[in-house]
Amino acid sequence: MARGYPRHFGGRTSVNPGFLIKDPRSRAGSRLSGATASQERLAFLNEASTRIGGTLDLAQTCREVLDVAVPRCADAGGIMVQERLITEGEFPARPNDGAALVRRVATAVAVENPFDWDRAFPVGEVAVYPPFLPQGQAMATARTVLVPRLDQGVGDDNAKAFGRDVIAKLLPGCSFLVAPLLARGNVLGFFVLVREPSSEAFQDADVALVEELAARTAICIDNARLYARERRTALALQSSLLPARLKAPPGLEVAHRYLPAGDLAGVGGDWFDVIPLAGERTALVVGDVMGHGVRAAATMGQLRTATQTLASLDLDPAELLYRLDRVADRLDLDQIATCLYARYDVAAGTVQIASAGHLPPVLVRPDGVAETLPVVPGPPLGIGSEQYELCEFALPPGGLLALYTDGLVEGREWNIDEGLAKLRALLTGPPHGIERICDMVIRTQCPHSDRDDIALLLAKAV
């Protein structure tokens, strides 16, 4: 059984999950040797396939691989991945000498002196392996390198390259096998396995087994890389499209929260906006493009930009949504999008609202009573509505308007009507600070990770 172990830094203890310690006594009965039957090797690979790649977390995948390989294949092992793959999700150009910057993501040992191995090969280290080392050769040639027994010179070269004398003590006499991690013709890093001098040396029959395990590992790492890159792209896109900071409009105090869904993409099409208008008026907008990921975020950005442009024409909410619907139709959207547009007039103390298939806002009156406003919803955007209905309500000083997306009021444990009732109950009562109300609503309404995106915009008349 693998386990992390305590590491001490200045009197503080922590556990490094990337360093796995296995019982060295277990390797005697479980070791796959050169004489192992092909059926047993196939069974090992089948078992490995079920135990690795269950998540899209690169570090977790590497730990799973080493948990499988040590001590079945080796006494110690490590996985190094190119640094640019981890930080940027991109394939760097492969230098001819193999001198690429790589990070040690995980290590596993089944030895009597695990702490020496950790000092020699620390998890998280970023390094360049010179071409005269087996690791550099494997990356440069994209071919597996087998050294039946390492001589003292190789141990000394490694120790000199990384400035750690303990390496020169550990490696001499060990059997060494380095397999490049190849995916779609690119070298992602390398998978290194080591057998101590007291163990049987690696043989040619071991190469095919380790290369197959390395190939499956590389596929899992590449999948994790693609996921991480898409998620970074989506988050960067969405953060650039949503307002980073909202200015306090005339006569209003505003607060907002945005929570992406807890799914793979981690980003979606919900948006909100506060747009200053002429004559001390303010537009409050919330919208929802169904779906998740980069595509939904890109559609959201187009609709948000179009809404801002139309708002500058000083249209009433119904007319604005009518024109936004026409814009959505020209964009040829095949995703359903809803939008609620409200225009607050501080002088009149009123708010005009129109809805394109969106949930109605909740109004909290100055006496603390919350109610759902009877806004008549029109069709979602892009369907081709002839008109949207304009509704007008009083918003006196002390009144609070809550605009939101359906992720706030709909979940596995309740339907929308129940969610709306819970939201009204939360908002009813004595007045609180608007930021505190935001936190309270989010904390209470979305306690689970299996939810949709959530956008919440609160506006309080002052």
TrEMBL record:
Q: Which Gene3D superfamilies match?
A: 3.30.450.40, PPM-type phosphatase domain
**EC id:** 3.1.3.16
What InterPro entries does the annotation carry? Answer: Bact_Sigma-Reg, GAF, GAF-like_dom_sf, PPM-type-like_dom_sf, PPM-type_phosphatase-like_dom
Top enzyme class: hydrolase
Residues in PPM-type phosphatase domain copies: 249-461
Q: Which residues form the GAF domain?
A: 57-231
Magnesium listed as a keyword: yes
The record's section on Pfam families has:
GAF, SpoIIE
* MF term (GO), any: protein serine/threonine phosphatase activity
Q: Which reaction does it catalyse?
A: O-phospho-L-seryl-[protein] + H2O = L-seryl-[protein] + phosphate
* Alphabetic keyword roster: ATP-binding, Hydrolase, Kinase, Magnesium, Manganese, Metal-binding, Nucleotide-binding, Phosphoprotein, Protein phosphatase, Transferase
Function statement = Primarily acts as an independent SigF regulator that is sensitive to the osmosensory signal, mediating the cross talk of PknD with the SigF regulon. Possesses both phosphatase and kinase activities. The kinase domain functions as a classic anti-sigma factor-like kinase to phosphorylate the anti-anti-sigma factor domain at the canonical regulatory site, and the phosphatase domain antagonizes this activity.
The protein in question is named protein-serine/threonine phosphatase
Native source organism of the sequence: Nonomuraea aridisoli
